[in-house]
């Protein structure tokens, strides 16, 4: 696409589908069940904990301690965002998708262990957790975000080391 094409259409196609939400519902404090219409997670339905976003951005301060306000979540802009009652309380689908990509469930954690040929004992030492905690992460449910990010970082570092050695 040339610069002229961008100016004529006003759109730049990067080839990456933009996140769009087909359906959303509140399923707990700071948790939304999201059905993705498009984007990297298109076609999936998953529970996303948006607490890291609510706690990080000043604009979401009203949602931090008001469960009734959080319960007003609804889709807007044809699935491009979620909004809550109140002034300027909107969260883009892209932002929610980013936080969803930083989460890991027990099945994904089990695949991480297998991919990296880690025993539960080795994973405990690597992640600074007890062997018992690693066992808990293999039971159905979410893996703590800090552990998921550590797993993603471990694999990124291992990949970089492999490419540097090649």
From TrEMBL:
InterPro entries: Lambda_DNA-bd_dom_sf, NE0471-like_N
Molecular function, one GO term: DNA binding
Protein name: DUF2442 domain-containing protein
């Amino acid at each position: 696409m040339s610069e002229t094409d961008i100016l004529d259409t006003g759109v730049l196609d990067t080839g990456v589908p933009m996140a769009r939400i087909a359906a959303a519902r509140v399923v707990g404090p700071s948790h939304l069940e999201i059905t993705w219409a498009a984007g990297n997670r298109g076609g999936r339905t998953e529970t996303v904990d948006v607490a890291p976003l609510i706690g990080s951005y000043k604009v979401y301060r009203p949602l931090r301690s008001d469960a009734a306000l959080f319960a007003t979540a609804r889709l807007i802009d044809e699935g491009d965002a979620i909004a809550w009652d109140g002034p300027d309380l909107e969260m883009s689908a892209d932002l929610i998708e980013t936080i969803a990509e930083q989460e890991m469930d027990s099945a994904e954690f089990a695949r991480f262990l297998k991919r990296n040929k880690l025993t539960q004992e080795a994973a405990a030492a690597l992640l600074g957790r007890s062997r018992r905690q690693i066992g808990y992460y293999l039971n159905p449910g979410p893996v703590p975000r800090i552990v998921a990010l550590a797993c993603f970082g471990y694999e990124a570092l291992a990949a970089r080391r492999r490419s540097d050695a090649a």
